[in-house]
Specification:
Radius of gyration: 26 Å
Shape: globular
Strand order of the largest sheet: 8-10-7-11-9-12-13
Distance between the termini: 53 Å
Structural class: alpha+beta
């Protein structure tokens, strides 16, 4: 019995991660039993990874429109107008499961996939970022995963010639068996020349270009839609193998084909490979596609239709060319030394029809595959332990006895420590657009030929999301926006990568639904549209789920470009101003985790009205040239933010003397609490009064707290009501040594 004619059994259906009800629906759609190839095609397209069957009903709540939105969700990437006839094109995707199985190639191919999503739209990629989560570096396996992922990202981005300019790395044991590798790419395109993934024009040729098809990555989309267990590493053959040099050729060939007006549609062969690219293009256009698999370039002999249609080999595109332009398309592709072949044509019957050697091996309505998969509104309920998680008895929590030691311990925590060991492996200056390199609140890239720049960042505190998914998701948006505002930018668009456990568990769906609500409310309040994104469920091993991790990638516009601002102090004698209010809020803080070994309590509450006012105030101050530096107060609180201002410059270390009044706050809340909507500014003395006046006019609390200068960080705290103060006095060089090399020490430990 050949694989194509293999009898469909219940075991085979289960192996394809389809339920009995889903299989019955397939039979209804086809009007018959599927063959093996068709079963495989439905399996990948109806997987969680491709169909969003557990999340789509909730994702509709996110705000996706706005005056700058050129392309919202539903295409390969989103796009927002940045003026001068240009748009910023960006998206974030996950490559979590492959990176656990094979960290180097899993991460590398994640970078390759997100790059293709961007240049498929007609945009030239100008920047990459990554948001990573790993288990504790005390574990040798976690160090192996961390090193492999960073090396894979570095290899692919550096070779293809797109700078990796920023991102974030977080360590927590909950990610030991499910590391997260989320990759973000930003590109620039002419607003009126965006390309879409549509198979338009009946009779137009369908053309395959790029690497040959192999057996790597088969059922990758299905694997990404399944929880892991002890045998998961046996799935290594499902991980694709990347070739960034071919990707570079593919990028240049595609942009040349678009510039020469030879294409009507184009789509990356990403998850689900040839199946997804063909059926999605046809479904969007309301057409059909007929494929001839005998024409598909392949690198392995004896491949079956099942394998060809499900392969996720990298660096491949499916294009619909204008009729009569086939020879010109193929000439350009061959000039770039790429495999290319006419593999089909656009039809008018709405079917994805697959042939091999003249025989039909699969025939399915394209819309049934792409758009008519199951939709579930799964039950949701908080976990039984949620009240315990949020309970934190402040009266029983001992006051900080050694504030200076606590500050040094926090700076040495891998979650706060400098990520220089990571970003120094990346080429962040290639293409000469990067004006603010990694190490500040956001990276900044100039847009050549204009007086504009774009700031980009990623953000999410998963502890907050565990303790209160709604507030945690709100804070992810607000903090990303605050990072951009501190860089002098107006936030103009958001992409997300929503990483959660098994959606069939009510507690996981509860986390997801509340996170969506938090994202929605924050985006609406701050007028930031969601233009693209990704959902990654089933980040769970042996029943243990990751923390809910809705990562946000955000883009901001700086105009004029010379208003870009960084976080480090610039000049001795400048005065330090704290914007915002510090409260007794220690729940979910890095301080609580590092010093008290607890992940508990309610995260800081975010007032969206206060956040709006803060953003407007700081944007005005920077626009009017009143600010020397601006830095968001986040992980580690005010003391850590001040320390980072003294030592994160690429040029020099510059100390400060700060005087604080704790009033009736706990010392640890004042120094290390993570109250939201706070920014540390440094300003020249002659601008101090103007800055304080603007803050007052903006209804933003502002307090003069210190002076820049010297080679030490001195923080003197007085208190009221009989409470004791404290003094921190540390050479900035000591702070820097603890902070700058902590991750390097952890990674290289034996």
């Amino acid at each position: 019995m050949t694989p194509q004619s293999q009898f469909i059994t219940r075991d085979l259906i289960a192996q394809h991660n389809l339920t009995d009800d889903e299989y019955k629906r397939i039979v209804e759609i086809l009007g018959r039993e599927p063959n093996l190839t068709e079963l495989g095609m439905f399996s990948v397209m109806w997987s969680e990874h491709c169909s969003y069957k557990s999340s789509r009903v909730h994702l509709k709540r996110l705000p996706t429109t706005g005056p700058r939105v050129v392309q919202g969700p539903g295409e390969n990437a989103g796009a927002v107008d940045i003026g001068d006839g240009l748009c910023a094109v960006f998206k974030m995707e996950s490559h979590n499961h492959p990176s656990f199985i094979e960290p180097y190639q899993g991460a590398a191919t994640g970078v390759g996939g997100i790059l293709r999503d961007i240049f498929t739209m007609g945009a030239r990629p100008i920047a990459l970022l990554n948001s990573l989560r790993f288990g504790s570096l005390n574990n040798p396996k976690n160090r192996y995963l961390f090193r492999g992922v960073v090396a894979g990202i570095s290899f692919y981005g550096n070779c293809v010639g797109v700078p990796t300019v920023g991102g974030e790395v977080v360590f927590n044991d909950i990610y030991s068996l499910n590391p997260l590798v989320n990759v973000f790419c930003l590109g620039i395109a002419e607003k009126d020349k965006l390309f879409k993934g549509k198979a338009a024009g009946v009779g137009n040729p369908v053309i395959y270009v790029g690497s040959k098809t192999g057996r790597d990555g088969i059922h990758g989309a299905t694997m990404a839609s399944d929880a892991f267990d002890a045998a998961s590493e046996s799935k290594r053959p499902m991980v694709q193998v990347g070739d960034p040099f071919t990707e570079k050729l593919l990028l240049e060939a595609c942009l040349e084909l678009m510039a020469d007006d030879l294409l009507v549609g184009i789509q990356d062969m990403g998850a689900a490979g040839l199946t997804s690219s063909s059926c999605e293009m046809a479904s969007r256009a309301g057409t059909g596609v007929e494929l001839d698999l005998t024409q598909v370039p392949r690198r392995e002999p004896g491949m079956t239709p099942y394998e060809i249609m499900l392969s996720e080999s990298q660096e491949r595109m499916l294009m619909v060319a204008k009729a009569g332009k086939e020879d010109e398309v193929m000439r350009i592709c061959r000039k770039w030394d790429l495999d290319v072949a006419v593999v089909g044509r656009v039809t008018d019957d709405g079917l994805l029809r697959v042939k091999e050697n003249g025989q039909v091996v699969a025939e399915i309505l394209a819309k049934a595959l792409a758009d008519e998969g199951p939709r579930y509104e799964r039950p949701s309920a908080p976990p039984s332990y949620q009240d315990w998680l949020q309970a934190l008895n402040y009266d029983a929590l001992p006051e900080v006895k050694d504030p200076q030691g606590a500050l040094l311990a926090l700076l040495e925590s891998p979650n706060i420590a400098s990520k220089r060991w990571v970003y120094e492996q990346y080429d962040h200056m290639v293409r000469t657009n990067t004006t603010v390199r990694p190490g500040s609140d956001a990276a900044v890239l100039r847009i050549k030929g204009t007086n504009k720049a774009l700031a980009v960042t990623t953000d999410c505190n998963s502890r907050y999301c565990l303790l209160n998914p709604y507030e945690g998701a709100k804070i992810a948006v607000a903090e990303a926006a605050r990072n951009l505002v501190c860089s002098g930018a107006e936030p103009i668009g958001l992409t997300d990568c929503l990483n959660f456990g098994n959606p069939e568990r009510p507690d996981i769906m509860w986390q997801f639904v509340l996170s969506i609500e938090g994202l929605k409310d924050a985006c609406e309040a701050l007028s930031i549209p969601v233009v693209s994104g990704n959902v990654s469920f089933y980040n769970e091993t042996n029943g243990l789920s990751i923390y809910p991790t809705p990562i946000v990638g955000m883009v901001g516009l700086i105009e004029p470009a010379d208003r870009a601002t960084t976080q480090w102090f610039k000049q001795a004698g400048d005065e330090i101003i704290l914007l915002g209010t510090t409260k007794d809020e220690l729940g979910g803080t890095e301080y609580l985790r590092v010093v008290h070994s607890r992940e508990q309590g309610s995260p800081p509450l975010l007032s969206l009205e206060a956040e709006q006012a803060l953003h407007a105030c700081v944007r005005r101050l920077i626009r009017e040239g009143l600010v020397r530096s601006a830095h968001d107060c986040s992980d580690g609180g005010l003391a850590v933010a001040l320390a980072e201002c003294t030592m994160s410059s690429h040029a020099r270390l510059l100390g400060a003397v700060v005087r604080l009044n704790a009033r009736r706050l706990r010392l640890d809340s004042l120094l290390f609490g993570e109250s939201q909507s706070r920014i540390v500014l440094s300003v020249s003395p002659d601008q101090r009064d103007t800055v304080l006046r603007v803050a007052s006019e903006s209804n933003v609390p502002a307090e003069l707290i210190g002076t820049v200068g010297g080679d030490r960080l001195v923080i003197e705290v007085t208190a009221e009501g009989g409470r004791s103060g404290c003094r921190i006095d540390v050479p900035v060089e000591t702070l820097y040594t603890r902070w700058a090399f902590a991750i390097e020490r952890a990674v290289t430990q034996s």
